[in-house]
Amino acid sequence: MRSFLLIASAVLAFSGIMVIQTTDASAVVCAKGVYRAGCAGARGAVVVRRPPAVVCRTVWVDGVRVRRCR
């Protein structure tokens, strides 16, 4: 009987703490897609597009080979 009362009081104390304790819902979830990436959080969502592919070409300037990228 004594062990039953001890276990019951431990369970009640634990459940009481769990009811009183609050947690913030401030989780952020991010995902990377094929065309764009995005994040969603407690204050809203953001979507970001991927930048266009960089095009580089080699040109001659005053007899020197120079790589120019756009």
Defining key terms:
1 helix; 5 strands; alpha+beta; 27% helix; 70 residues; 3-stranded antiparallel sheet; two-stranded antiparallel ribbon
Structure report:
- It is a single chain.
- The protein is of the alpha+beta class and 70 residues long.
- The mean pLDDT is 80.
- The chain has one helix at 2-20; strands at 29-32, 36-41, 44-49, 56-61, 64-69.
- The chain has a domain at 25-70.
- The radius of gyration is 30 Å and the shape is rod-shaped.
Topology as H/E string?
HEEEEE
Number of strands: 5
Uncertain parts: none
What structural class do you assign from the helix and strand content? alpha+beta
Backbone CA Rg: 30 Å
Enumerate the strands of the largest sheet in spatial order, edge to edge or round the barrel: 1-2-3
Roughly how many Å apart are the termini? Answer: 81 Å
How would you state the average pLDDT, rounded? 80
User: What is the overall shape?
Assistant: rod-shaped
Largest sheet: 3 strands, antiparallel
Estimate percent helicity.
25-40%
Give the helix tally: 1
Signal peptide: 1-20
Keywords: Signal
Structure described in brief:
Residues 1-20 form the signal peptide. This protein is α+β, with helices and mostly antiparallel strands and 70 residues long.
